[in-house]
Design brief:
Layout (H helix, E strand, L loop, with lengths): L1 E6 L7 H4 L3 E4 L2 E3 L4 E5 L2 E10 L2 E8 L4 E7 L5 H16 L5 H22 E2 L2 H4 L7 E5 L3 E8 L2 E6 L3 E8 L5 E5 L9 E4 L6 E4 L4 E6 L1
Helix pairs in contact: 2-3
């Protein structure tokens, strides 16, 4: 992750951007792409988000002339970003010390989820041998080329700018998914085999990408 602490910029001095248009609760409103909230007695203007392989957060405290932007190379790193925001409140404003506990809880949750994924994802030769039928080249209109390769008993998915080892995740209905197992993916994104065409479908949450077989 990378973070930057800098003075509150003139870009966000325009109150029209963060004037409340939709009331969320008694301490939060949503403006034009920005949340206007009260956190621990501080006014916070913020917005964060997730996309394929990344999580970001930015928040500004207009009354204190402070702004923070955090970029991470891990999808769904929300717990870490929440703890980081709390840590900044502790360092700058002597807020209650609880970021360490948040990080410890997030680490335990991550560990437990990783254990559950390891139980679901198979790597043994018998479970993954069927991937042989899908070796070769693929292409997505949005994400470009992909290739399924094999080295010994290990399968990999190679994309334009990154790659990952593959395991097999068995669904309750016995459907089989190709799970990405290398960091930072760790079993989160999966490739679904399109039985009628042999194409691969990558479900990235808000977006889905089809890799057509060459």
């Amino acid at each position: 992750p990378r973070s930057t602490l800098f003075p509150y910029t003139t870009l966000f001095r325009s109150r029209s951007r963060w004037r409340g248009g939709i009331k969320i609760n008694d301490k939060a409103e949503y403006g034009l792409g920005l949340l206007n909230t009260e956190e621990q007695g501080l006014q916070v203007i913020s917005h964060g988000g997730n996309t394929f392989g990344f999580t970001s957060d930015l928040f500004f405290l207009p009354e204190q002339d402070v702004g923070v932007v955090v970029l991470t190379n891990l999808r769904m790193a929300n717990a870490f970003l929440g703890a980081l925001r709390q840590c900044i409140f502790e360092l700058l404003f002597d807020a209650e010390r609880k970021s360490d506990q948040w990080i410890a809880a997030a680490a335990k949750s991550h560990h437990d989820e990783a254990e559950r994924k390891r139980e679901r994802i198979k790597f043994d030769s018998a479970s993954i041998a069927w991937i042989d039928d899908f070796l070769g080249d693929y292409r997505s209109e949005e994400l470009g080329p992909a290739r399924i390769t094999k080295n010994g008993d290990q399968f990999r998915a190679e994309f334009e700018s990154w790659s990952t080892d593959l395991g097999v995740e068995i669904q309750p209905d016995d459907a089989r998914l190709l799970a990405f197992t290398s960091p930072p993916w760790n079993g989160a994104p999966r490739l679904q085999i399109m039985s009628e065409t042999g194409d691969l479908l990558l479900d990235a949450g808000q977006d889905k990408y089809t890799f057509h077989r060459a």
